[in-house]
Amino acid sequence: MVDESQSNQHLLKKKEALIKHFIASDTLKTDKVIRAFRTVPRELFLPDSLRDSAYNDTPLPIGNGQTISAPHMCVIMAEILDLEVGMKVLEIGTGSGYHAALIAEIVAPIDSQASGHVFSIERVKRLSESARKNLERAKYSDRVTVIHGDGTLGHPEHAPYDRILVTAAGPKIPEPLIDQLKNSGKLVIPIGGVYFFQTLILLTKDLDGKIKKEKRGGVSFVPLIGKYGH
Length: 230
Ligand code: SAM
Hints:
With 230 residues, this protein is an alpha/beta fold.
């Protein structure tokens, strides 16, 4: 039988190998995202039966037909968002809570008193509850607030946000999310069909509120379901 410390050592080795690969492939670009990826234990956001696969670069099932995104996708979105300590971030699609913790580790590092915060919305109640538990055991529950509801409506109570990320693919960018983004803010979202032909879009608002959209490559996400979704 493999004891717990051996299993932890094995996971750490796999995590370091993945970091090396992400740096070599220019997926991980900045020290802040590298540090956050190293700090947040992805294994704590998975069912125990999938713990050993935590640092395989694939999406994994988390129940209710949903997935935790592949590590490279979480890293790519974190790099595109250009996050800074102290920012207020809105995530649509909490899933396991991992991506929210990764973002929180950049805007409010666990060993700091930084005021950054992540608000994360999940439409499946059971997932919102298990994400809260995962965030609690990974010690991010004071930095991430999980809300159960339709994230295509955003979360006006704490708007405007410095950054918004959507981790499910919609047919178009939900208007409420654009409205709830600060001037000089950034929003990243996969746009396209249900499971196929999706493109990652970066929307930026300049200081005067003028909007620019850029394509950032092909992706494959579960559908964004809701009033402004599929
Ligand atoms: N970020 C997640 C993680 O780290 O585990 C992965 C998210 S998974 C790819 C997409 C999630 O979006 C699913 O949990 C799904 O239930 C959720 N979702 C889909 N439509 C939504 C909506 N309108 N509002 C909130 N969550 C939604």
